[in-house]
């Protein structure tokens, strides 16, 4: 399939968009890391969580670059070194975005609940979908081919439902950063640059997944 020109016609533009999005988020984070803030990422996230009554949610450092995430099973927010102890607009923006996910979890935010429920199916799809699809194509066993497509559709569903989850977490972060006095209204433009760049990566990933699913269906029907 990877030598099929139609694959690049379907997926190529969104693959390039994804590469641009990755470059954009890294370059924007680097620039906004040079803009000083009043607090570190840890302090900003702690303030946001405490203001929401989430004192039980712990914040831990984690290795890696931009590896920040909220773990709903452990109720722990994990921040990378360039966010946890850094006192910059980039750091407080990313930290409070992740704190926004903790708030969603506490409120049982519907898209987050649906996304979490879709994780097992999406994980299965990511491991097996392409193998089943290619196996079905090579052997001519049509049911296996379509099972692979359905499995990949679970990945697409996960990507699509993840968009409102990420957008809402960023919106919560922007509101709370100003409301808690971590940044001013004027400084919110710096945080928005980081969060908007990150949002582009989610959009690009979703579009690439949708385009790939369209290609798989096209290929199955063409065969």
UniProtKB/TrEMBL annotation:
Question: Does the keyword section mention Transit peptide?
Answer: no
Transmembrane parts of this sequence: 6-23, 117-138, 144-165, 194-218
User: Keyword Membrane: yes or no?
Assistant: yes
Question: Keyword set for this entry?
Answer: Membrane, Transmembrane, Transmembrane helix
Identify the PANTHER family for this entry: MEMBRANE PROTEASE YUGP-RELATED
Protein name, per record: Neutral zinc metallopeptidase
Organism this protein belongs to: Roseimaritima multifibrata
